[in-house]
Amino acid sequence: MTVSAKTAKKSTRTATGPGVTHACKKCDGKCCRYFALPIETPEDWDDYDDIRWYLCHEDVTVFVEDGDWYLNVKNKCRYLSEKDYRCQNYGMRPRICRGYDTDNCDLTGDDYGYELHFQDDKQMEEYIRIKFGPKVFDKLEPKKKKKKKASKK
Fold first, then answer.
1. pLDDT digits (tens, 9 = 90+) for 93-112
2. Burial of 124 from C-beta contacts in 10 A (0-12 / 13-18 / 19+)
3. DSSP secondary-structure letter at 89?
């Protein structure tokens, strides 16, 4: 498959056209430094423990917004220029990127107002204890071996 010069030129265009607002020019690409994926709403201890596992990983958070749960992964887009914070793939950017606007972006929008926001596994452990009781993790601790009593002879 060959790419025409016109297509190649279009795909390397950066975010400098008529749709670029004053806010875009001040932005450092906040929305290009993470992605959030919907996850199933946890229903039982195992589900919450799986989420705790996600949170054991670096640069991962979990949040709840409008009752929906999301896995948030801090991971910079490969096309975000650190020089001018513009998209180096603007003409060919994915649909999700095309849907962003400055009315509700990370730079100009309101506070997220998450119902819940877990930034590490310890916060999830605390939430699980509140939800399922303070001894919920007892089953994970290794059982102590009972010492045998010395027999008298």
1. 999 999 887 777 777 666 67
2. buried
3. T
